[in-house]
Amino acid sequence: MSPPRIKDPHAIPVAGHDHHLDAVDGSRLTAEALRQQFREARGFTAPIRGDGGAGDRPAAQAAVLVGLVQRDEGLQVLLTRRTEHLRDHAGQISFPGGRSEPEDGSPEATALREAEEEVGLPPACVEVLGRLPDYTTVTQFVVTPVVGLIRPPLALKLDAFEVAEAFEVPLAYLMTPAHHRRHVFQFDGGQRQFLSMPWRHAAHDREYFIWGATAAMLRNLYHFLRH
Fold first, then answer.
1. Which residues span the domain enclosing 104?
2. How many H helices and E strands in the chain?
3. In a domain, 130, yes or no
């Protein structure tokens, strides 16, 4: 049986913070440093492989684009807020991405296709750097995170059915574990743990609650860059 879904992650108590872990040094958060890291990466094993389990729903392949926008102030992570009516992960903060189709041929093709469909990002604007290890979600998607650099300017066009909003978060903020919180969800028969990385958009004065699979993949990126 799969662990139960968490309907209100804000209500789950914070079990701890990770102030004791060092942030990724800024010198490793540049486009060229990331290119080199992916060129030379060998033997990396992600510490967080998923929150899924054996359930009634068959596993499905998917891919997301961990898009890093090259801004003058530093790399920014492109994220979306999903619309509230979707069957899976409604209203959550996610990377652009989705289910793989047979004609895609690779996770990279899936991630680029989905990013173009969801937010209007042309594949030609993306320089694919590589992949992170797969992550299995509680909804039984085996997700391949594809990391890529995005060249501005961007003229995004959102798919109103799937995407309520697209926004950017500084990569340096997300690669600082002091901003990561650990939660423990208790349920009959066990417990489920997850990370959150709340980020407040100063201009809009609102908080984006990054959690679950998105936060886990970002945490894996952190470990990859420290590898």
1. 13-226
2. 4, 12
3. yes
56 has pLDDT over 70: no
Q: Over the stretch 31-46, which tens digit does the pLDDT of each residue have?
A: 999 999 999 988 899 9
Report the distance separating Cα 196 and Cα 17, nearest Å: 10
Task: Decide if 5 is inside a domain.
Answer: no
In this prediction the pTM is 0.92
Q: How far apart are CA 137 and CA 62, in angstroms?
A: 10
CATH number, domain with residue 159: 3.90.79.10
Q: Is the pLDDT of residue 86 over 70?
A: no
pLDDT at site 206: 84
Report the Cα–Cα distance between both ends of the chain, in Å, rounded.
34
Query: Does residue 2 sit within a domain?
Result: no
Burial of 58 (0-12, 13-18, 19+ CB in 10 A): exposed
At 3, is the pLDDT very low, low, confident or very high (cuts 50, 70, 90)?
low
Distance CA(155)–CA(153), nearest Å, equals: 7
CA distance 59 to 53: 10
